[in-house]
Amino acid sequence: MWLGIYAPQRLRRLILANTGAHIGTPEIWAQRIATVQNSGMAALAGVMLERWFTPSFRDNHPADMETIRNMVAVTDPDGYIACCGAIRDTDLRSDISAIAAPALVITGTHDPATPPSNGCAIHAVIRNSKYVELDASHLSAWERAEEFADAAIAFLATEERSDG
Q1: DSSP label at 136?
Q2: Taking the complete model, does pTM exceed 0.70, yes or no?
Q3: Under a CB-based contact definition with an 8 Å cutoff, are residues 111 and 135 in contact?
């Protein structure tokens, strides 16, 4: 979104998936940062799996859950803390109306981190946008990979046809 606002010449299209122009509260991010500082990344792994995937997906994909749990556990804590700070301090709600590039906004119906209301708010403000909601949680590209890919490919293929 930032590129769409401040460097629009650098892109022709945007896919904005499971995101928001403003995410969470300062208190939520402070709590995440404190957890990592006090207990390390492994302390967040279980919580992230619960937020990132629906219960049925978690139950039916134990190998995927173990892969992601391990990925979170070995994530650099300093990098994660810096990311939390960047997200905490970013609020593009009043700026995204400047985005002129076509945008595909994808949300997950069950996403507690960036709920569909976040995506709907983006879609309502970006005048040349399309909205898709998948029956997924926060990592909709993983949980509904085929549907996500189909939506992205269809959106990007539109440009190829129009550019001729």
Answers
A1: S
A2: yes
A3: no
